[in-house]
Amino acid sequence: MAELNPDAPMPEKGLVVRGLRMAFGDTVVQHDLSFYVAPANIFVIMGVSGCGKSTLLRHIIDLQRSDVGDICFDGQRLINDDPAERAMLQSRIGVLFQSTALWSSMTVGENVALPMQLHTQLRPPEIRDQVAFKLALVGLAGQESKMPSELSGGMQKRAGLARAIALDPDYLFLDEPSAGLDPITSQRLDALIMRLRDALGVSVIAVSHELPSIFTIADDSIYLDNESKTAIAHGNPRELVENTPEPRVRAFLKREPIDEPARESA
Ligand SMILES: Nc1ncnc2c1ncn2[C@@H]1O[C@H](COP(=O)(O)OP(=O)(O)OP(=O)(O)O)[C@@H](O)[C@H]1O
């Protein structure tokens, strides 16, 4: 269960977000966000367009900062000003952006090797072995010398995943992983994400509004509400769809119209 008692002691393992407020200038995107992501769980951030899902992801991985609230990985605050400690925490985080963001001038193998070259002392043969291992994990064995432009959209996502797990992270962040993929490729990617969670014991935090994907992969979730600007539901989406008392959450999870005037920003 994702809901977090703000007065509870900090858990030693897992990701804790406590009392987070996110804003652009005077415009508050979300406030009072408190939740817990358990180790080796797949946690999905849900909500309609513009509710603040990507902004939340950016705060958790420290690309954006807030003056209000705490974000802690395994009991340690991510946001602190000790560069060595920050680098250590950052190395435990893998990220797959929506755009995949592979370097187009580098081969697939060079893309996956890059984080190891930048952040580890591994020697070239060890890096080569690790690249081969990570590509095999995502079903791209032997594709090292391909250029990203030679891969299909689904294969590019998998190459992006191989790069995201290059440093054996404890936490893997995925921004709309299925965006732009056909249903079959999307289903395969879901299966891969669950396999990686099981094989590596990694906690996965994904932003998604793809319902089939949410119902398949999520152990736990949070629903960010566009109206009240805070989370109005926490829990397993398969249980929420049956039990939530919140009409907007039910409408989202059942793809049903809602009586209230919709205020989605396209
Ligand atoms: N750099 C920015 N400056 C000002 N406002 C921004 C900026 N980035 C996002 N916003 C606003 O913050 C709100 C949340 O945006 P965000 O992209 O996090 O939503 P989202 O839930 O991820 O949307 P989508 O599902 O469409 O990707 C939106 O109203 C958006 O217009």
UniProtKB/TrEMBL annotation:
Superkingdom of the source species: Bacteria
Residues in ABC transporter domain copies: 15-253
MF-aspect GO terms: ATP binding; ATP hydrolysis activity
Keywords: ATP-binding, Nucleotide-binding, Transport
Matching Pfam families: ABC_tran (PF00005)
PANTHER family referenced in this protein's UniProt entry, alphabetically: PROTEIN TRIGALACTOSYLDIACYLGLYCEROL 3, CHLOROPLASTIC
Protein name per Swiss-Prot or TrEMBL: ABC transporter ATP-binding protein
Organism: Salinisphaera hydrothermalis (strain C41B8)
